[in-house]
Design goal:
2 helices; mainly alpha; globular
């Protein structure tokens, strides 16, 4: 028996269209210029979008 517990947090998979909508909303909210945090969010979303394809 293992003495360590592994916790896996899974987010529900989204379609590429759903992720694309979030990307568009991020750009819209930013006014076309992403700050550091928004850029990290964008990069994460692009990876998620690519995986959903």
């Amino acid at each position: 028996m293992s003495t360590s517990a592994e916790v896996v947090l899974e987010r529900p998979e989204r379609t590429a269209a759903q992720v694309n909508e979030e990307i568009r909303a991020l750009w819209s909210r930013s006014g076309g210029t992403l700050n550091g945090e928004q850029r990290r969010d964008y990069q994460r979303l692009v990876r998620e979008w690519a995986a959903a394809h």
